[in-house]
Amino acid sequence: MFALEEYTKRLENVKKRMVEEGVDVLLISNPSNMYYLTNYSAWSFYVHQIMVITLEDAQPIWIGRQMDASGVAKTTWLDEHHIIAYPDYFVQSKERHPIDFVANILTEIGQSARTIGVEMDVHYFTALCYERLKHGLPNATFKDTSSLVNMVRLIKSNQEIKYMKRAGEIVERAMRAAYDCVQIGVRENEVAAAIYLAQIQGTPEFGGDYTSIVPMLPTNENTSSPHLTWTDRKYKNGDFLTIEIAGAYKRYHAPMARTMSIGNAPNEVKELSKVVEEGIEATLDFIKPGVKACDVERVWSKAIGKYGHRKSSRLGYSVGLSFPPDWGEHTVSFRPGDETILKPNMTFHLMPGIWYSDYGVEITETVRITTDGVELLTNFPRNLYEKPVLSILPDEHTS
Amino acid sequence: MFALEEYTKRLENVKKRMVEEGVDVLLISNPSNMYYLTNYSAWSFYVHQIMVITLEDAQPIWIGRQMDASGVAKTTWLDEHHIIAYPDYFVQSKERHPIDFVANILTEIGQSARTIGVEMDVHYFTALCYERLKHGLPNATFKDTSSLVNMVRLIKSNQEIKYMKRAGEIVERAMRAAYDCVQIGVRENEVAAAIYLAQIQGTPEFGGDYTSIVPMLPTNENTSSPHLTWTDRKYKNGDFLTIEIAGAYKRYHAPMARTMSIGNAPNEVKELSKVVEEGIEATLDFIKPGVKACDVERVWSKAIGKYGHRKSSRLGYSVGLSFPPDWGEHTVSFRPGDETILKPNMTFHLMPGIWYSDYGVEITETVRITTDGVELLTNFPRNLYEKPVLSILPDEHTS
């Protein structure tokens, strides 16, 4: 848990933005934003829960399911008056909806006719949540504040950076575990298992947390599609794969991707890897406070463009604290049109993956903007790793 | 992948329900429903994607992000005419929304003025998705079909049952790994790591898949709140904990929870465990085809009520195929008011967890309704496990 002063400061920053946006009441559905403001981290977001911020109140109010209320009391700084539970018969019911209960609470505390910010495009704030809310609060005015708290999270505190560096140490171990495990005759799921073990064991000094996206490790032609996970197929000589994973410490993430092969990689993969490596170098040389997010992408595009390559997807995105289903923060992206000026202690997943129709290469870094440049939060060789093939393999004969 | 005939049958069943509900077009946002109909399982649901079912078309249409399209082509039975990709600049943008793209496609294929079913209360169909859809299709009529496909999934095929039994084998191994790992001086995260390792390694015959909820293993007073995960605190003599996990095979789940202690458990935990065990026996004796879901809960309540205990939350829910953030199917629950009549090959997580303000007990089973009763999908001792304390523990001196 962070010091109470840090939570108070975060809440103040959120309230400042609420005033700027003309919002009296803010309803938070995004578990990352709830955690950011209160330390609440339970896996209870699969049922509806809402955190209410009003300009007047010094604490957020959590409204959620009965069986989760004691977890809020035990793990956050909220007092008992700011923890309100709805009965279990609201859960996944056809007759009742938890947001009806939330609307009643807002009415009881005199907030029914205010301007209310809602996270319109956040998973967990469903279309039906909004319909029920409008129905229950006919005199309220609603405003989309999907990224209001996310924008407050953009610049990290020193303690947050420390957490992300720990996450960086964890992902180094997890990637090493994957490299060590991949071999002819080994099943894809065994590599995923080795990654999980390293991610959650963490280091002797600190334990690991679950990551908001599972390991993604498509092989061969499936590397053209980065979000495929794994099967129980056995690796064969000449297979190549991309491995995109993260380390997590207390919900803070450091993602990383690498590309490897068993024995020699195909020529196109080798060549593309070199282009990506060179592009990363050029991009890292450029990144510093004061430059724009879109210009980072421009430098990258130029670096790979001279070899005839082109990446049609964004080059990266803000990263840090998160809950499933995404480890991105949904704020700033390295892509044309994003004019955000980079500032110290912003953190990004620099994501120079290139996916063609039958193969892909991913080599990525999690980076922090420093006072005069950029710092890597992980330390792991970037080159394509062509793993030597063992000459004696008991499994090979049985596969 | 299931046989094409099974997918065709599933799609037919969905269309039948569409006709019953007066829906011409069905938009699917729930990744479990997408997978059920097409085998698409990539972790791409963190950006907006929609599957379109029309009564006329023999295949669903997938509409999603450019970089994911080749994964759809490579892992599903959809042909290239049924895979439509939106450019990356729609992703998490303030200017553009993927659902605008979807609305345009629906207009192009002549479906803009139809009755369209949308999954109003599904994570991934956000409030903004619905607003953009209404804006883009002003002549359409919308209907809430949140559980239309889920209801089709309620009765499992034999192959689905086989998958769930495999998941059951995996969760047995994972629970055994947890029991073996918990000990004085061991950190909570190391137990979580042992669970993950067993979950993903699976068995020598088949590999494990990730589960839709992470391991939940609250200790001592935190057992009052079932959805807390883990920390890196070290276990001490006398600690007690609940462990709620699942095994997963090709996205099919078998959840299971158990309660254990290091050395002697507190008396109230021992006593409550016995009550829960007896309640489970009574409940299992009762469950069979033809009885109502609400009556299952009634039998349970009576069994524990005679000892003065009461459970305020539902006793269980339909389970099977799922994606994060939940392994429940959001259809049938064992609770008052649910009049669903049980039928063979329905599958449930029988969830007799009881949570009081300072402790809780969870002992659960995944069950299948058979032709004349009920079958457990896992085989694991149900009693409270009081793990003997080792006399020589090197870690103990350093903790």
Could you give a short description of this structure?
The first copy, chain A, is α/β, with parallel strands linked by helices and 399 residues long. Helices cover 33% and strands 19% of the residues of chain A.
Keywords summarizing the entry:
homodimer; 399 residues; Creatine Amidinohydrolase, Chain A, domain 1; Creatine Amidinohydrolase; 5-stranded antiparallel sheet; 33% helix
Overall number of structural domains of chain A: 2
CATH superfamily of the largest domain in chain A: Creatinase/methionine aminopeptidase superfamily
Described by strand count, sense and barrel closure, the largest sheet of chain A is:
6 strands, mixed
Most residues in contact: chain pair = A-B, 84 and 85 residues
Number of helices of chain A: 10
SSE series of chain A: HEHEEHEHEHEHHHEEHHEEEEEEEE
Radius of gyration of chain A: 23 Å
| Class from helix and strand fractions of chain A | alpha/beta
Distance between the termini of chain A: 49 Å
CATH class type of the largest domain in chain A: Alpha Beta
Helix content of chain A: 25-40%
What share of the residues of chain A does DSSP label as strand, in percent?
A: 15-25%
Low-confidence stretches of chain A: none
What topology, given as strand order, has the largest sheet of chain A? 4-3-2-1-5-6
Mean pLDDT across every amino acid position of chain A:
96
In total, how many beta strands of chain A?
16
EC number (chains A, B): 3.4.-.-
Enzyme class (chains A, B): hydrolase
Keywords (chains A, B): Hydrolase
GO molecular function (chains A, B): hydrolase activity
